[in-house]
Each structure stands twice: as structure tokens, then as C-alpha cells.
Write a structure and sequence with these properties.
223 residues, mainly alpha
């Protein structure tokens, strides 16, 4: 694996491993080997070691002395903290959207919703997650809060892993789509109170989902 443009080998390996962890292709608790990973990507051990260190700093990888390197378990406390932050920020943002949202941003939401329907028909887990993220990002950007979204995204890694697991575990995503649809309708109608209520209900699903997933996949979560 060689440098492609301005992207280094280390960055390429890091990005690939990070996506494998977030997508649950590498489930929580999976042991990681420098030798095996370097062979997988056909690179030396140095960029692999550097990628492991970077992932460890993000909390996605855990290095245990005398035991080895493992994909971190999902931290339920961090999941709840991220959900708390999203609930308070996103209910505020959607209220702003009801007071002023550009026609261009609304068109982006409509395109996103149409793509969600296609993804539901195709049972595309990765696509549905990306569209879910995009829908919420459009809300922030449409209110001039793109930097807030960027900062928030750095703090939701464990929540996103739990969300990806939920999408893979249960392919009934219609309720998720319908809540997004209701949010868009509330924004168009300028119904701030209704929009806040829908958003809060939407994000509270993570509480129920996490309890169910932790019971079903206890080995993926920290005690």
C-alpha cells in the first residue's frame, strides 16, 4: 500500500481499521495483531503500530500489557453521555431550523429521505447509517452550526458503534425513517414545539436500544 496523493500509508490503514471497528466488521473484543494487520494491508509494521496508537487515543482500541491489543468494548457510560449531548444540542438546533431553514437545506433533507427509502428496500446497513448521520448534519449546517456538528461527531464514537450494531441486529428501519420524515414536516410547518418533541423521542430510542443490545450482546459491552 503506497502513498496516494496526500494520503499517507498510515492514514490509509488507520481509516480502514477505524471503519471496520465502527461498522462492527471488527467486533468489540477482537484481538488485533501487528503482524497479521501488516500482512492484510501489505505494509510494514510501523504504520500499523501508529494506527493502533491513534485508535487507542480515540478509545477504539485497548492495549493491555502482557495480553495484547484488542478492539475496545462499548462503554455504556460514554454512549449515554453522547446521547445526552446530542439530545440537548439537536433539540435546540431543530428549533432553530423551524425558525429559519433555507430552501436548499430543505431540498437536501428531501433528497436524503428519498435515499433512505431506497436504502431500506436494499437492507443496506452502512448506507442507512450514513444517511442517518447526513440527515442530522444537514440540520446543523442548515442552521449555520457546522462546526458544532464537527465537534459533536468527535464525541459520539461509542454511541455510533451501538447504533451500527442496532441497525445490523434489526432491519426494521421504517420507524427511523418516519421520525426523520416527521422532523422535516415540522420544520417546513415551522412547528418548533412539535419538532423538539419528535427529536427528543427520536434520540431516546438509543436508551431502549442500548438496553436491548447489551442484554443480547453482553460480551460487546463494558460491565
Amino acid at each position: 500500500m503506497r502513498r496516494q496523493g496526500n494520503v499517507s500509508t498510515r492514514d490509509t490503514v488507520y481509516a480502514a481499521l477505524r471503519e471496520q471497528i465502527l461498522s462492527m466488521e471488527l467486533p468489540p473484543g477482537t484481538p488485533l495483531s501487528e503482524n497479521e494487520t501488516s500482512q492484510q494491508f501489505q505494509v510494514s509494521r510501523t504504520p500499523v503500530r501508529e494506527s493502533f496508537m491513534r485508535l487507542a487515543q480515540e478509545g477504539l482500541v485497548q492495549v493491555l500489557p502482557q495480553r495484547g491489543t484488542f478492539v475496545s468494548l462499548i462503554d455504556t457510560a460514554l454512549v449515554e453521555e453522547a446521547r445526552f449531548m446530542r439530545e440537548h444540542l439537536e433539540t435546540a438546533v431543530i428549533e432553530l431550523a423551524c425558525k429559519g431553514f433555507s430552501a436548499q437545506a430543505m431540498t437536501q433533507l428531501e433528497t436524503n429521505l428519498a435515499n433512505q427509502q431506497d436504502t431500506i428496500r436494499q437492507l443496506d446497513e452502512s448506507g442507512m447509517f450514513e444517511l442517518d448521520e447526513e440527515f442530522h448534519r444537514i440540520l446543523f449546517e442548515g442552521c449555520g452550526k457546522s462546526h458544532t456538528w464537527g465537534a459533536l461527531s468527535q464525541l459520539t464514537i461509542h454511541l455510533n458503534r451501538s447504533r451500527r450494531l442496532r441497525l445490523a441486529d434489526d432491519h426494521n428501519w421504517r420507524n427511523l425513517y418516519e421520525q426523520h420524515r416527521d422532523m422535516a414536516d415540522a420544520i417546513r410547518a415551522g412547528n418548533a414545539e412539535g419538532a423538539r418533541s419528535i427529536m427528543k423521542k427520536h434520540l431516546s430510542l438509543n436508551i431502549t436500544d442500548q438496553a436491548t443490545l447489551k442484554e443480547k450482546y453482553p460480551h460487546y459491552y463494558m460491565d
